[in-house]
Amino acid sequence: MLFKIVFLLLTVALYISPLMAYESEEVLKVKIVGKVAKFVRWNDSKNDKFIITILNNPYGDLFDRYFIGKTIHKKKIKLKYINSISKLSETNILYIPAQESSALNEILKNTHDKNILTISDIRGFVDRDGILQISFISQKVKLKINLKSANDEEIKINSSLLRISDVVR
After folding, report:
1. Which of 18, 113, 147, 166 is the most interior residue, by most CB within 10 Å?
2. Is-above-0.70 flag for pTM?
3. CB 130 within 8 A of CB 104
4. CA distances from 7 to 2, 10, 66, 98, 140 (A)
5. For all residues of the chain together, what is the average pLDDT?
């Protein structure tokens, strides 16, 4: 009987731990979006809010919970959720989740020359002209930045952020 209880507890623990790790990666991705923004400068926007747009939000209410009442560059954060890139309007950041990989070329085409910091966890994102890629290697966060794409969008990235990132030129 004791063996069955121990076995059941181990089985449950092994099942739950990957789910907890997955959730923590998702939380980290959301937090990174806000942290990174503090090291980036955009052309002066006439908007009095700092706008973060999330395409096809896969994270439930994580963005709302994390950014409620916060500011970036002394501007109150406004979150926008869109389900199509055709609905993209003025924004500082566009977060593109991994499930949008097949539409990435169209998405990036629609953000070109709009002074938008594109952030994604899509593998090879910066190689396809996205600006900032978030990945996890051995449970550590890795950032990759495409400096040419950032410069093309007239987005200035602080050297502190560049030092802790892999930079693609």
Report:
1. 147
2. yes
3. yes
4. 8, 5, 37, 36, 31
5. 87
